[in-house]
Amino acid sequence: MILENIVKKNSYYDSATLMLLTSKIGKQIGNAKDVSVMMGTDNNKDLMSVAGLLSKDGSDATANDIVIAIRAKDQNVINDTLIMIEDELSRKNRDNTTTEKAVYTVEEAIDKKPESNIAVVSLPGEYAGREVRKLLESNVNVLLFSDNISIEEEIALKDLALEKNLLMMGPDCGTAIINGVGLGFSNKVKKGPIGIVAASGTGLQEVATLVSNNGYGISHALGTGGRDVTEQVGGRMMLACLEMLENDNDTEVIVIVSKPPSTNVLKEVMNKIYMMNKKVITCFLNGDLEVLKKSGIDYAETLEEAAIKAIKAIDKSGDVKKSNDLDNTLNESKDKLNLNQKYIRGLYCGGTLAYESMLLLRKEVGKVYSNIAVSPEEMLQDTSISKEHTILDLGDDEFTRGKPHPMIDPSLRGERLISESMDEEVAVVLLDVELGYGSHDNPASILTEEVIYAKNHLSQLGREVIYVASICGTFDDYQDYDYQKNLLESVGVHVMNSNAEAIRLAMKIVS
User: Considering the entire predicted model, what is its pTM?
Assistant: First the structure.
């Protein structure tokens, strides 16, 4: 094999663009592991080195350079691949051509748009905090998409935001909806009286989309970042967001979505809820049910139930629609399986959806193995090998290092879907499809190709596997919900109206 690194000096593209380019070129040459296009940061060069894609030329690159790494059997393949990459980068440059003068600093952006009052920050963690501070000091609210921010810096930035009565959503906050405008990974939802405060991205999306798809609406959906509810951070932004929504005239009902806060943060949040005049529904996934029951606060065990309770608080006759003909689906599915097929494998792009599925399955079957397990004995020692019932969060850092998030590029799930399907003890493969801003343009098309490929292999073995999916998206999202659903159903995937409904069906199939 020949390895070649080409360094483009003093060139810059954002990491998401280069990740998508790497994925696209990898498919065209037949092996994504033989190509990488990254900025020449130390971290990226380490990733390329581990993958066996870094040569001396690439190791000399700086953080201001693009490193193109190609590995192939002959030089002609390398030359052809390089031409494809150069064409894509040139096209990207043409697409970005604009008559509007670009700005390169926070100060320039504020001078150019002084009326702006919110900014989305997506920078390497070592630089992000400094720029966020500048924005907050200029009275600009912030959604901090970046991670790798120290907990001390997070606390300092949130304290500054609170001092100025601003939002500092994050770090690692991927989703928010403010006045109907989606930020990060978000959906086009109906406007209405239900507000959301969430320390989880796809948890926020699941509740918001279920509310919207059933005819109700969202006032604002505010993210806090997952670390906000830890003991150290103390729920600073969650408490501030609750205060903001309580004072918001367009919000009548508030939903909180989060993994369990620390004990002291939970007490603070409950005390806040007791003093509020508005209805508050909590969904602390994996929270202590006895504590929640004794507290007297209104709680939901699933994201679906949280949406239902929020809707009923607005309209007593309202509800979330259930999928049709489940009994027939269940019976048909059971008939296709043999006695050896008894396990569920979940392959999730959305982290909160994976977590919810793991919790629901654990209540029914006991042990569920995962890379996000809630107990040490259920943590997969080798995430490349599933065992018994397994739920995987494919958006976790170990799967996305140097790659786009699977909500951006769901093809990253393909290889694992094939291997899980080939396991003779697997009965059901659980899947999620995310729609909305930031997500793939046509995620169901990727998934259907993978399912067809797996089914063809299974048919040669005289075996079938049941594929169950849910779509986290609204009927108004640009990817066209009905088209995505029909595409999945055309290849035999059972599409449920919610993630909780999908896991319930999967459990009934293997019961």
Answer: 0.89
